[in-house]
Phosphoglycerate kinase (Pseudogemmatithrix spongiicola), 393 residues
Amino acid sequence: IKDLGAAELAGRRALVRVDFNVPLSDDGKVADDTRIRAAVPTIQTLLKAGARVVLCSHLGRPKGKPEAKYSLAPVAPRLAELLGKPVTFVPHVVGAEAEAATKALMDGEVCLLENTRFEAGEEKNDAALSAAFAKLGDLYVNDAFGAAHRAHASTEGVAKLLKPAVAGLLMQKELDYLGGALEKPKRPFIAILGGSKISGKIDVIEALLPKVDGILIGGAMACTFYKAMGFETGKSLVEPDRVDMAKDLMERAAFRLTIPHDATVAPAIAEGAKAHAVKRDEIPTDEAMLDIGPDSAASYARAIASAKTIIWNGPMGVFETAPFDKGTNAIAQAMVEATKKGATTIVGGGDSAAAVEAAGLATAMSHVSTGGGASLEFLEGKVLPGVAALDAK
Ligand code: 3PG
């Protein structure tokens, strides 16, 4: 795909699709600006080149009509602080007023349009809406990796109408890291996959198995594997209809798939709960696995230390509630150490990225993806429609 270097920028309106789908606090302020900060390099580059920047994004999942709590208005002041220059908020997605606002921009100025999902045509990838978006720019830049798995009017439809349609710097960086790991990883290459459900990770396990030297499993999804091994799983979260699948996967993967040898269990998820470690075949009937055990955490840390490329997606336990955050933190720390020694460390978006951000370790990794669903689909080997729609090199 083409990048910013392929576009003439000075004096032109760049319609830039960003992923400003950020959490807002109850008083309507940006609660986590990670994704806004991640888009700044592209915006700065465009501004320096004398472009007129028109930003658009979705926020949350409004159902095709305006809803005050999903307005992008709170993002404009935060972005203005980060850029050190005014950002005009335009309370329209498309239409005459939006178009007039984009035409009023001078070189080096920025405006932010209202939530693209306030338009019913956005998620339908409607042709008329795509054409309306195309009127808001002279070229198109997609920097919304986090939304690239959606074939929507602002991510896919408009890219086919506005030329050139190029990737922003964040988009390029995400594709370089994730794509680089899949195509030419430094070895050993390992993946650490966690989360509560095996059903959400099965496709990524299947896609990574032929490429990696090992996959280390964590999170409650380990319990579906325990069940497949014939172990008691107590009150743990298990997906009974996936047990056969887990069995089949273990047989095919053999030594390349590691299921945690011990588990941290407790009667319930509660701050400071009476947690204790047990071997994986000793989970009490009245307790649930809520984290990987200390032996597994230590052995996973050793595996990370000897790997050259590490991809991590999904927490090892209920990391939001101490003490069930120990496994997740151990992985994060081991990845920080590996990064220092020159390994390429990649954290997939979503929960594991949130855990790494919360621990203040994001900058100590090679790359933390801004995409949750998008990074997972990319690792599954799927074509992301928002990327496929950009101009070929
Ligand atoms: C995300 O948060 O993963 C992206 O912004 C996509 O949001 P969506 O799942 O609502 O399409």
Summary: The pocket of 3-phosphoglyceric acid is lined by residues 19, 21, 61, 146-147, 150, 372-373 (CB under 6 Å). DSSP finds 15 helices and 15 strands in the chain. Residues 230 and 360 are 39 Å apart (CA to CA).
